[in-house]
Design a protein that fits this description.
- The protein has five helices and 15 strands.
- It is elongated, with a radius of gyration of 26 Å.
- It has three domains: 63 residues; 82 residues, no CATH class; 68 residues, Ribosomal Protein L30, Chain: A (2-Layer Sandwich), CATH 3.30.1390.10.
- Strand 3 and strand 4 form a beta hairpin.
- The chain has 239 residues and is an alpha+beta fold.
C-alpha cells in the first residue's frame, strides 16, 4: 500500500508538535525569567531555563510554518463524492475518509466505478474493472460479474445464493505493518472505532467476524490481504 499521507493528517501532526514545543518552551522561559528577576540575574539555573526555552520556541514556530506550507491533491471519491486531499497523487488504492471504501487507483488515476442493484434485495452495490466478484453489502448474496462486453464489465441483473450453508469465522493472524488504509478497511468491515481496531491489531490472533458464509469470508479475506496481512477462515460453531 502507498505511504502517501493525507494533507490534514500532516497539518495535524505539525500542529501537535508546534503545541508541544511552544508550550514547553513558554513554560521554560517563564520559569527562567521569574528566577532571573527574583535573583537579580544571579541564578545560573534561570539562564539554563531560558537557554532551553528559546530553541524550543524556535522549533515550535518552524512546525507552524511547515504546517502552513502543506499542499495537497484533492481526489473525489467515486462512491460518495467525498473530497479526499492527499499530499501527492496516490499510485495505489486508498481508503475514502467519507465512506471508508477502498478507492481503486491505476497508475495514479481513479478507476471508473459502476453501480448495480442486487437482484434479491435491490440494494445498490458498486464495482470496478478490478473486481473479480461482488457480494451484496446488504444481504450477502453473490452478484456474478459477466465477461467483457464493449470494453466494460457487465453484471447480470440476477443474483445467486450461497450454496454452502455452514458458518465460518474470519481470523486475523498477523499484520506486516499497520496502515491507515488497513484501519479504515477494518472499521468499515466491523463497524468499530479506530481505537477498537488498533487494539485488535495489537493483540493477534483475533477473530474478526463469526457466523458468516464461506463466500463472504473469502471476499473479506481477499480484501484484507491487499494490506499485507494474514487471515484464516475457520469453521465456526456457536458456543
Amino acid at each position: 500500500m502507498s505511504d502517501i499521507q493525507r494533507s490534514s493528517d500532516v497539518v495535524e501532526e505539525h500542529a501537535q508538535q508546534a503545541f508541544m514545543y511552544i508550550g514547553g518552551g513558554a513554560i521554560a522561559l517563564v520559569i527562567g525569567v521569574v528566577m532571573a528577576v527574583y535573583s537579580s540575574g544571579q541564578a545560573p539555573l534561570a539562564w539554563v531555563m531560558i537557554a532551553i526555552g528559546v530553541p524550543l520556541e524556535i522549533v515550535g514556530i518552524k512546525h507552524l510554518i511547515d504546517a502552513k506550507k502543506v499542499t495537497g491533491v484533492t481526489l473525489e471519491c467515486p462512491y460518495c463524492q467525498y473530497r479526499n486531499t492527499m499530499t501527492e497523487k496516490p499510485m495505489n488504492d486508498f481508503a475514502c475518509r467519507g465512506c471508508n471504501r477502498m478507492i481503486p487507483v491505476d497508475n495514479g488515476v481513479i478507476m471508473q466505478v459502476e453501480q448495480v442493484r442486487c437482484g434479491f434485495c435491490n440494494h445498490l452495490n458498486f464495482y470496478s474493472a478490478r473486481s473479480h466478484g461482488l457480494l451484496c453489502e446488504e444481504c450477502d448474496s453473490i452478484i456474478p460479474i459477466a465477461g467483457l462486453e464493449s470494453s466494460s464489465k457487465v453484471i447480470s441483473t440476477y443474483s445467486r445464493k450461497e450454496v454452502d450453508e455452514s458458518s465460518y469465522e474470519l481470523v486475523l493472524v498477523s499484520v506486516e505493518r499497520s496502515t491507515e488504509e488497513l484501519v479504515a478497511t477494518m472499521q468499515q468491515m466491523m463497524a468499530l472505532n479506530r481505537n477498537q481496531v488498533k487494539d485488535i491489531i495489537e493483540n493477534l490472533p483475533q477473530p474478526l467476524l463469526s457466523g458468516i458464509n464461506h463466500t463472504k469470508a473469502e471476499m473479506l479475506k481477499a480484501q484484507l490481504n491487499t494490506h499485507k496481512v494474514t487471515c484464516e477462515i475457520r469453521p465456526y460453531t456457536p458456543s
